[in-house]
């Protein structure tokens, strides 16, 4: 297809169904070797079909995003109509309201329409050094308003995890980012069981009695929240992420509550 534009192998996007941690998922992966992952009309149709399958069957969907957005020479055939590219973002909102998990890994440069999709997902993860999110890149910023800025400062991992808060967490490489997706899927419930699934429970790492030594008598004194969690949730079930804001460290966890 699109031979007059140099071709578009596989529509520039790979769509598969597969099992992640034993859970059936729809996976949508941009191919950055095809026009920098830009969206042709067929790219939008494939992605919309993947979302429809996820919506009809209540299957989690994983986006591995690396996209230059709409292929501009054909933008009049891609974006405006009901079944065109813009409906993808409507589906993002619909799936979120339906409780269908959407996880996006920003693994390359995500521009314009390629940026909307990951930040409308329930989880947005980014790879340091390669992932970026912005409406337009640094060269267009320079040509438009004369400001010189690099892509990393404009919309890289540090900018979006530590300043804007657009992205949930950053990872040093693709492998660790994919592992994080597996850990998220592993702790998800299913709609058929009221939002949680039973897994083999484990006793907490610390004994409940340890709380007496962890919590201070003076309620104004600080304490180590990790030690509290180690005494009340399943061992090795904490999925921690961190964001640094100056000298303040903010932590959060996914926890398995099956054991205690």
What order do the helices and strands come in, and which of them pair?
Blueprint: E1 13-20, E2 23-30, H1 41-57, E3 61-65, H2 87-98, E4 102-106, E5 109-111, H3 113-119, E6 123-127, E7 132-134, H4 138-145, H5 151-155, H6 157-163, E8 169-171, H7 174-186, H8 211-214, H9 225-232, E9 239-245, E10 248-254
Parallel strand pairs: 2-3, 3-4, 4-6, 5-7, 6-8
Antiparallel strand pairs: 1-2, 9-10
Helix pairs in contact: 1-2
Structural notes for this entry:
The protein is of the alpha/beta class. The protein has two domains: 3-191, 2-enoyl-CoA Hydratase, Chain A, domain 1 (Alpha-Beta Complex), CATH 3.90.226; 208-254, no CATH class. The chain has nine helices and ten strands. It has a six-stranded mixed β-sheet, sandwiched between helices. A hairpin with a 2-residue loop joins strand 9 (239-245) and strand 10 (248-254). The longest helix is centred in the N-terminal third of the chain and has 17 residues, at 41-57. It starts with 12 loop residues before the first strand and ends in a 6-residue tail after the last strand. Mean pLDDT is 85; it is low at 245-260.
Which keywords apply here?
six-stranded mixed β-sheet, 2-enoyl-CoA Hydratase, Chain A, domain 1, two-stranded parallel ribbon, globular, alpha/beta, 21% strand, 260 residues
């Amino acid at each position: 297809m699109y031979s007059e534009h140099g071709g578009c192998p596989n529509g520039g996007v790979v769509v598969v169904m597969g099992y992640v941690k034993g859970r059936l998922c729809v996976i949508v992966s941009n191919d950055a070797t095809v026009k920098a992952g830009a969206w042709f009309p067929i790219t939008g149709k494939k992605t919309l079909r993947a979302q429809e399958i996820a919506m009809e069957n209540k299957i989690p969907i994983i986006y591995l995003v690396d996209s230059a957005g709409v292929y501009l020479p054909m933008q009049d055939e891609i974006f405006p109509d009901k079944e065109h590219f813009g409906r993808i973002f409507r589906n993002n909102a619909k799936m979120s309201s339906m409780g269908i998990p959407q996880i996006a890994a920003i693994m390359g440069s995500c521009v314009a329409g390629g940026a909307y999709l990951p930040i409308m997902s329930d989880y947005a993860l980014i790879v340091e050094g390669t992932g970026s999110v912005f409406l337009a890149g640094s060269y267009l910023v320079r040509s438009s308003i004369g400001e010189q800025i690099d892509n990393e400062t404009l919309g890289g991992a540090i900018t979006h995890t530590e300043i804007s808060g657009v992205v949930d967490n950053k990872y040093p490489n693709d492998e660790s980012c994919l592992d994080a997706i597996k850990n998220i899927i592993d702790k998800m419930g299913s709609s058929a069981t009221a939002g949680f699934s039973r897994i083999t429970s484990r006793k907490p790492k610390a004994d409940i009695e340890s709380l007496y030594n962890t919590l201070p008598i003076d309620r104004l004194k600080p304490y180590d929240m990790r030690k509290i969690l180690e005494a009340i949730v399943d061992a090795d079930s904490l999925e921690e992420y961190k964001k640094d804001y100056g000298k303040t460290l903010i932590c959060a966890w996914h926890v398995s509550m099956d054991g205690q």
